[in-house]
Structures are given as C-alpha cells and as structure tokens.
Design a protein that fits this description.
This protein has 228 residues and is an alpha/beta fold. The protein has one domain (2-167, 195-226): Vaccinia Virus protein VP39 (Rossmann fold), CATH 3.40.50. Helices cover 36% and strands 29% of the residues. The chain contains eight helices and eleven strands. It has helices at 2-15, 19-23, 33-50, 70-76, 87-97, 132-144, 164-167, 196-205, and strands at 56-62, 77-84, 102-106, 118-124, 146-157, 170-173, 176-180, 186-190, 208-209, 212-214, 219-226. Strands 1, 2, 3, 4, 5, 9, 10 and 11 form an eight-stranded mixed beta sheet that branches. Strands 6-7-8 form a three-stranded antiparallel beta sheet. Strand 10 and strand 11 form a beta hairpin. The chain binds S-adenosylmethionine. S-adenosylmethionine binds at residues 5, 8-9, 12, 23, 63-65, 68-69, 84-86, 89, 107-110, 124-126, 129.
Length: 228
C-alpha cells in the first residue's frame, strides 16, 4: 500500500505539466465540441454551487494540484491554505494564480493531521484517490480540520472518462487504474467511482451533514457542514 501511494504521488508529479489537458478537454481528452460544451456546462453547475456561499476567512484545500479550484476558492475566501504532495503541482498552481491569498505546503495527506481548524475544507478529484482502507481516517482528519458548523465541499469523477481509449487508462479491478502519460510512461494508481447515495451514507456516518449529488454525466459533488 505504501508503495502504491508513493507511485500515485510520482504519477502526479510527472503529470503536473500536462494535467490541465484533462480538465480543459485538450489533446488526448478532446472528444469534440459537443462533449466539451456539456463538460463545461456541468463544471459551471458545480462552480455555481461552490460560489453559493462566500466570505470564508480561512479555507483549507487538500490536493489542490494546478489550481483549477484554488482559483475559485480565492473568490469565496480571504485565505486559502493549499496542501499537496507534489512540488511540481504547487509550482504550477503558484505561477498561475500569483496570489498572496494562497499559502502552499508540501504535505503527504496520508501522514497528515490538522493542526488547526478552518471555516471550510475543499478537495477536488481527491477522494477517488484515497484507498478504501484509508477513507475513514482521511474523513476524520477532514472533520477535525473544520470548525463547528464549517463547510465541506468536494467534487469528483462520476464515472470512467470516455477518452480512456485514447489515454491508455485501464481499470485493473480492486479500485486500481493504469494511467499513461503523453510520453508513454505507465503508472498504477487508486481510483474509486462512488455511488452518490452510498457515499452520502458514509459521510453522514463520518459526522457530516451532507448529500452527494451528481451532474448528468461527469461529476459528483457535495456541499455540506460538519455535523454538531
Ligand atoms: C487528480 S489531482 C486533483 C488536483 C486538483 N484538486 C483538481 O481538482 O484539479 C490529485 C492531486 O493529489 C495530489 N496528491 C497525490 N497523492 C497525494 C498525497 N499522498 N498527499 C497529498 N497530495 C497528493 C497530486 O499531486 C495532485 O495534485
């Protein structure tokens, strides 16, 4: 398990310069105009929900990557503390945002316990990479990182990306996936596709007042609070 999680970090370190191609549906992920339009519409749906509340003094972002969602969080929060294991991701995020409102820390989230509490915790496309045996501890840490009544928001993948035939992504069973970079390097990582209802039950049992929702095709997202 330790080795798998280390490979997962190495994969994202190596993928950092090409990561945004996935989110912006470029290169190998380009499925045509209609697909991109639908993807963008569903991103907008999630973004609007995220922006439905603002004015958070301190937001903790876990696994921020290249800053796609950090850029949104600085619009609804005064300060964002962003923890990622990859220095390459952090460098891209920092260079893109050039924001004094964001503080970056290189952190392995599987060896992390929060040292303080925040008004909001956010993670994008991270939960699906947390192995099931590590899920309850991760949720405990996320909960511990929130002030009473603090907001939890996350977004993740609803199902396997249709572009996978061209990206080399392959489901290997047991929550594992093979990923292939543009230059052909291959990595094995964790990827879990959750059922929204089942994940809602898990999160509520973990002390969150929350409901996981899905967009039509691409995303799961949840907006809730730390339960009292
Ligand atoms: C799928 S990307 C998501 C990035 C960003 N949140 C987004 O939505 O675009 C996963 C992120 O998790 C980071 N990561 C992988 N393993 C990690 C670990 N053990 N601790 C902290 N971050 C990790 C990667 O560096 C990468 O930035």
């Amino acid at each position: 398990m330790t080795e798998l999680l280390q490979h997962q970090i190495e994969y994202y370190r190596a993928r950092a310069p090409e990561y945004d191609e996935w989110f912006y549906r470029r290169g190998r992920y380009d499925e045509g105009e209609a697909h991109t339009r639908q993807w963008e519409l569903e991103v907008r749906q999630v973004r609007e929900q995220l922006h439905s509340e603002s004015g958070f003094p301190h937001i903790l972002e876990l696994a921020p990557g290249t800053g796609i969602w950090t850029a949104e969080l600085i619009k609804i929060g005064e300060r964002v503390i962003a923890l990622d294991a990859s220095p390459e991701m952090i460098a891209i995020n920092r260079a893109k945002l050039l924001s004094a409102a964001v503080e970056y820390q290189q952190t392995d989230l599987f060896n992390w316990r929060p040292e303080r509490q925040y008004d909001m915790v956010f993670f994008g496309f991270w939960l699906s990479h947390v192995p099931s045996v590590k899920l309850s501890r991760f949720l405990e840490s996320a909960r511990a990182a929130l002030k009473p009544g603090g907001r939890l928001f996350f977004v993740d993948s609803k199902g396997v990306d249709r572009a996978k035939s061209r990206t080399g992504t392959e489901d290997l069973g047991s929550d594992l996936q093979q990923r292939v970079l543009n230059d052909g390097r291959r990595y094995e990582i964790v990827k879990i596709y959750y059922d929204p209802e089942q994940l809602t039950v898990v999160l509520r049992a973990g002390g969150f007042d929350i409901e996981v929702r899905a967009t039509d095709n691409f995303f799961l997202y949840a907006d809730g609070r730390k339960a009292e």
